[in-house]
Amino acid sequence: MTKFPWYERHQQWLLGKADGVRAHLSEADLRRANLSRANLSRADLRRADLSEADLSEAHLSEADLTGADLLRADLSEADLNGADLRGANLRRADLRRADLRWADLRRANLRWADLTGADLRWADLRWADLREAHLSEAHLRWADLSEANLRENAELRRALEQATSQRWWNRWRRTS
Question: Tens digit of pLDDT per residue, the chain (176 long)?
Fold first, then answer.
């Protein structure tokens, strides 16, 4: 990971140290930045340009990424638990095996995103664009997909059918 002057102060803030300062990076230009394995939990990244950034295995839990540009960003195995990604551009982003539980993805652009094996349980995907997103082995239980754009996404339909049949099977097993 590339070192940034604000990064150490953010780490101190996360630890509750007096000299720590929360990372306020709204509208920051972080295009192609190497933030792999960085701990940016609870950071303010509203409208930041993180296009093509390496955020693989990064900790972004509860981060504010509202309106952020994450076009082609590598977020594989990233922790985005509880992150605010409303209106974010995640087009063609790599989100394989990412933790998106409780994430707010309302109106997010996830077109052509790779969500293979991603954990989307309890995620809010209302009005999200999921056209042609890769969702094989994604965990969608309790995710809110109402009004999401699912056209042209046979993979998602299969994943939802699988989740539905699994719930039916579990109910049937408990009653027999």
Answer: 778 889 999 999 999 999 999 999 999 999 999 999 999 999 999 999 999 999 999 999 999 999 999 999 999 999 999 999 999 999 999 999 999 999 999 999 999 999 999 999 999 999 999 999 999 899 998 999 999 998 877 566 666 666 555 554 455 455 54
Q: Which fold has domain 24-176?
A: Pectate Lyase C-like (2.160.20)
Residue linked to tokens 């699912």: 150
Residue whose token pair is 């998602």: 156
